[in-house]
Amino acid sequence: MQVLSQVDSTNEEIRRNLTLPEGAVVIADRQTQGRGRQGRSWHSETGTGLYLSTLLKPDLTPEKLALITLMAGVATVSAIQQQASVPVKLKWPNDILLNGKKLAGILCEYIPGTAVIVGIGINLNQTCFPEDIQDIATSLKLATGNTVNRAKIVLSLLESLDREYEEFLQEKRTHLVKKWTDRTDMFGKTVTVHQKGNSLTGIAVGLDPEGKLILQTPNGKQQLLGSGELLTARADSKSPFSK
Q1: Per-residue pLDDT averaged across 135-155, rounded?
Q2: Distance between CA atoms of 224 and 171, rounded to whole angstroms?
Q3: Domains of the chain: residue spans and CATH
Q4: Is the pLDDT confidence value at 168 over 70?
Q5: d(CA 239, CA 232)
Q6: Which of left, alpha, beta for 63 (phi over 0: left; psi -120 to 50: alpha)?
Q7: pTM listed for this prediction
């Protein structure tokens, strides 16, 4: 394990060192260029969050990357709940929400023929956020009033990742999808997914065995989405299927 006071991005630090053994971990106290999905930045305030990346080298195709993201999400939720009794929920494909606000995020990057870099960011002890995200982000301290011991949550997270990854390697995909499903509240809701410049609205039905989102569209057909950004999730009575 490598612990840095500052780095541009823990994912980038591993990308520069792909000869590291599988399971290598990089943790930073601060990221200057922390990244999320869709090229967004990840707010990485000094000393308040957990910014961690690990290097995995499974024998898998790019199409299976969604399952790695699900695996990391389940492990992260488990670690958070071990340290704080809070109602965290998974949001497809890579977010963890608390009271409807973003608490944590996963960024998995596939290096063709080489590895998968799994980056995890968790808001732990932040008491405020920049104006542009203060309405959509939260931290464990804001939610509970308690300061989180970062060392303890790191230990919990690494133990959870080790356990979930071992099951992943044993091809327990159905079990993984079920565990992810048990930790979300998005299914049955009307959602809008932004994908490759297009928006698609429908009801989130569930996940298929490969971790793809099953979306039932207003025409009654089901579509499988392997990636994208979930823009909205609501359980309103007026759905696109209403007459």
Answers
A1: 94
A2: 21
A3: 2-182 (3.30.930.10), 190-234 (2.30.30.100)
A4: yes
A5: 12
A6: alpha
A7: 0.88
